[in-house]
Design a protein that fits this description.
Layout (H helix, E strand, L loop, with lengths): L13 H7 L2 H4 L3 H17 L5 H19 L12 H13 L1 H4 L7 H37 L4 E6 L2 E7 H26 L18 H7 L9 H6 L2 H27 L7 E2 L18 H24 L12 H25 L2 E2 L1 H8 L6 H9 L5 H18 L8 H7 L7 H4 L2 H6 L9 H14 L1
Antiparallel strand pairs: 1-2, 3-4
Helix pairs in contact: 3-4, 3-7, 3-9, 4-5, 7-8, 7-13, 7-20, 8-11, 8-20, 11-12, 11-13, 12-13, 15-16
Length: about 450
């Protein structure tokens, strides 16, 4: 029987009931529903709203039910309207009228708002741990390749020499910001709405702070209308998760490029690659491609949630039931991507020589050549033009700046000496970049240590 059946004279149409039902997806909140109900019952007893003995009986039975669900003894009835209905009906079936007293001074509106806050708080903690595991792998790889020379790119054109360790740390910094965003989101999420009732609070003398404290929440909502209708924390989480997926997708795109024959900077382990049904030579980076593709799914969840909430009048509306499927799918998708991406990166082989060979081409030390002239007193713009002429000459003669004879240098500028060859060595170019955040190996190792300290 539906909890709201008293107002209605006939049974709801079965198709309508199925359309209205949410237990297929909100059943995952059974722990939080029981935890919230235990805290509510304890408060009702302490405040004298229901008899303490009945409160104790309710709490004991709810704990028993939680253990039974966890152990598989109690099966969730998916014909129930939602998880809240199932828990209350099972409680009443076990202890009779005492179970009916649990919902005193509570609405499903503030109950579901509590449950989703509790559940998503746990999800945030788990996702943060999964991101930290990925950062750990990145730091390990970055430390091993702090002096592995590779070309840095802009516009996908070779630009300046960096190290692979430095490149990896860019993603570590992105993921650190993701953890910060999740932590900030959690601050506004971990607030108890219980006591808001359906929309206008209650006439019972509740102790809302007691419930929040027993659930390890950091405070209570301050307006009953907002308490039941607020889903900002869901939108914030979906936004934060979308940014996580942007970062994973960008990383995946580079991995896909790097393991192509055109780059061959890395090779993915066979466990994280697939073959072709017709081309026996193929080794496809399908896992990275799927992560890149699933970003759209998470972005879609954010758009769904924004669209659902944008036109709703206060307070609760049934539209808000749509929040759960969207945010749960986003959480699950990001978690799946993180836990697959991490071992893929762990087992990835780095082709150091190929990276260095690529760095030796493309004149990526041209800026350093210009800086050589600047250090001799020449304005940078003049030095820039001179090195541009040198590059054009090298292309014409099929040479590089390292192999261009000093006589050719001096024809364009008399300020060049033999020491220019030392200045434009790739290792020297990288080692000289020692400002904070630069790719010099010492800088990379220093930043790795700092990141380890904050994880």
């Amino acid at each position: 029987m539906n909890l709201w059946a008293g107002r209605f004279k006939s049974e709801i149409d079965q198709k309508t009931n199925d359309f209205n039902s949410s237990i297929s997806f909100d059943s995952r909140m059974y722990k939080e529903d029981i935890e919230g109900s235990i805290a509510h019952a304890e408060m009702l007893g302490q405040c004298g709203i229901i008899d303490k003995s009945e409160a104790s009986r309710i709490i004991t039975t709810l704990k028993w039910m939680l253990a039974d669900i966890n152990n598989g003894i109690l099966k969730i009835d998916y014909t129930a309207e939602d998880i809240h209905t199932f828990i209350e009906q099972e409680l009443t079936a076990r202890i009779g009228d005492s179970g009916k007293r649990l919902h005193t001074a509570r609405s499903r509106n503030d109950q579901v708002a509590l449950d989703i806050r509790l559940h998503l708080t746990k999800c945030v903690d788990r996702l943060s741990d999964e991101i930290k595991e990925l950062i750990d792998v990145i730091l390990y790889k970055a430390e091993r390749h702090a002096d592995t020379i590779m070309p840095g790119y802009t516009h996908l054109q070779r630009a300046q020499p960096i190290t692979f360790g430095h490149h990896l740390l860019a993603y570590a910094n992105m993921l650190l910001r993701d953890i910060e965003r999740l932590a900030d989101c959690k601050k506004r999420m971990n607030i108890s709405p219980l006591g808001s009732g359906a929309l206008a609070g209650t006439t019972y003398p509740l102790n809302r702070e007691m419930v929040a404290e027993s659930l390890s929440m950091k405070g209570i909502t301050r307006n009953s209308l907002d308490g039941v209708s607020d889903r900002d924390f869901v939108l914030e989480l979906a936004s934060a998760l979308s940014i996580v997926m942007v970062h994973l997708s960008r990383f995946s795109e580079e991995i896909i490029l790097w393991c192509s024959w055109e780059f061959k900077f890395i090779e993915l382990d066979d466990a994280f690659s697939t073959g072709s049904s017709i081309m026996p030579q193929k080794k496809n980076p399908d896992i990275a491609e799927l992560v890149r593709g699933k970003s759209g799914r998470v972005f879609g969840s954010l758009m769904t949630l924004l669209t659902v909430m944008k036109g709703l009048p206060l307070a609760y509306n049934k539209d808000m039931q749509e929040d759960k499927e969207a945010i749960f799918d986003a959480v699950d998708t990001v978690s799946m991507c993180l836990t697959t991406f991490t071992p893929m990166l762990t087992t990835m082989k780095v082709n150091e020589e190929t990276m260095r060979t690529a760095a030796a081409k493309g004149f990526i030390n041209a800026t350093d050549c210009a800086d050589y002239l600047v250090n001799k007193g020449m304005p940078f713009r003049d030095a820039y033009k001179i090195v541009g002429k040198l590059v054009a000459l090298c292309i014409e003669k099929d040479l590089t700046l390292e192999t261009l004879p000093i006589e050719e240098y001096q024809k364009i500028s008399a300020q060049f000496d033999e020491d220019v060859y030392h200045t434009i060595k790739l290792d020297v170019c990288v080692r000289k970049r020692t400002v904070v955040g630069a790719p010099a190996p010492e800088c990379v190792l220093r930043e790795i240590s700092k990141i380890k300290m904050v994880l």
